Amino acid sequence: MTPDYGEDILVRKKEIYDGAIPVGNSVTMMNLLRLARMTGNPEFEEKAAQIERAFAGDVRRSPVTFTQFMIAVDFAEGPSYEIVIAEKPEAEDTKNMLRALRKHFIPNKVVLFRPTEEEASEIVKLAEVTQYLSSQEGKAAAYICHNYQCGLPTTDVGEMLNLLNVKEKKEVGNEK
């Protein structure tokens, strides 16, 4: 956390707990978990588990000082979701699905976009699971996945949110 060009110090201190700025271990653990879910590569998840095991004793003694770390643990324990939206990026129904995902607080998720007009898009190279996911009858399709296994697609935003266990809040109007 100190620059190489800074003053000469005997020891560069590396905190293990999260303060006002989360420490690298916590951020790395969360990023590895997200990468694992995005790419389907279990090696990333194993590396995250190694970080969790390395700091488990410290976290047990003082969990309140490991806030970002605990967020990563929550993501790992789940439930968490991998969401793949398949369709053209400029399609209005694609935008509606993405807007709905942004509107609601769904912390334990990763979202992948699978453009359908490209056979060998970059996303397929990074996340092979998206290779066979496509839009449905010309409509944007959402695939809700848990632990690397995707369910049937839906083209309905409400159904997508239901599969994510999101409860729509009813707007309270000005009643007279």
Report on this structure:
The chain has 176 residues and is of the alpha+beta class. The chain folds into 2 domains: 24-77, no CATH class; 81-163, Glutaredoxin. The chain is built from 6 helices and 4 strands, in the order αααβαβαββα. α1 (24-39) runs antiparallel to α2 (42-61) and α1 packs parallel to α3 (67-77). The N and C termini lie far apart (57 Å). The model has no long low-confidence stretch (mean pLDDT 86).
Main sheet: strand order: 2-1-3-4
- SSE order in H/E notation? HHHEHEHEEH
Q: What is the number of independent domains?
A: 2
Shape: elongated
Largest sheet: 4 strands, mixed
Q: Distance between the terminal alpha carbons, to the nearest Å?
A: 57 Å
Mean pLDDT: 86
Class of secondary structure makeup: alpha+beta
What's the CATH topology label of the largest domain? Glutaredoxin
Taken as a percent bin, the fraction of beta residues is 5-15%
What's the architecture of the largest domain, going by CATH?
Answer: 3-Layer(aba) Sandwich
Number of strands: 4
Name of the CATH class of the largest domain: Alpha Beta
Computed Rg:
20 Å
Number of helices: 6
Q: Provide the helix percentage.
A: 40-55%
Low-confidence residue ranges: none
Secondary structure elements and pairings:
Elements: H1 24-39, H2 42-61, H3 67-77, E1 81-86, H4 92-103, E2 109-114, H5 122-126, E3 141-146, E4 149-150, H6 157-163
Parallel strand pairs: 1-2
Antiparallel strand pairs: 1-3, 3-4
Helix pairs in contact: 1-2, 1-3
Question: How would you summarize this macromolecular structure in one to three sentences?
Answer:
About 40% of the residues lie in helices and about 10% in strands. It contains six helices and four strands; from the N terminus they run αααβαβαββα.
